[in-house]
């Protein structure tokens, strides 16, 4: 995450199409990797669980299946509704139960991004090309040539 990116900026997960925080390294919905940024990964690993609610609901006991909706509503500190999402629907047959877990993770503020250590590249001497021009010489001297590029029969 760049230092200029504002807190709360979002993007769409390319895997599951959920709207997620741009600063995340792993999508909280589908758990696919979104970026391979060490700082973002450390920040996400340092997240704390601010709220976790688990519950079970069951069929009310009638003869017919019962339908259900799972709805999440987010309010700001003035009580205004910020978001409302239906996250799941379904039906329960007599005797069936279903569980729900709601969790809220809070990420720490981003630290100043440290400049990566400079990388030193070292040139590796190229191995001589084997006679015939189309093969690869291994360290033990064996020459691998693709079919049709080896020496021609006499």
What would you say this structure looks like, in words?
This protein is mainly beta and 154 residues long. The chain folds into two domains: 1-46, no CATH class; 48-111, no CATH class. Helix content is 5%, strand content 34%. The chain has one helix and eight strands. It has one helix spanning 38-45; strands at 10-12, 19-21, 48-58, 66-75, 81-92, 97-106, 136-137, 143-144. A two-stranded antiparallel ribbon has the order 1-2. A hairpin with a 5-residue loop joins β7 and β8 (143-144). The longest helix has 8 residues, at 38-45. The protein is elongated. The mean pLDDT is 81.
What's the layout of helices and strands?
Layout: E1 10-12, E2 19-21, H1 38-45, E3 48-58, E4 66-75, E5 81-92, E6 97-106, E7 136-137, E8 143-144
Largest sheet: 2 strands, antiparallel
Task: Spell the H/E element sequence.
Answer: EEHEEEEEE
Give the strand line-up of the largest sheet: 1-2
Task: Tell me the distance between the termini.
Answer: 63 Å
Poorly predicted regions are none
Mean pLDDT: 81
- What's the count of strands? 8
Which radius of gyration do the C-alpha atoms yield? 29 Å
Shape: elongated
Total count of domains: 2
- Given the helix and strand composition, which structural class is it? mainly beta
Approximate strand percentage: 25-35%
In helices, the fraction of residues equals under 10%
Count of alpha and pi helical runs: 1
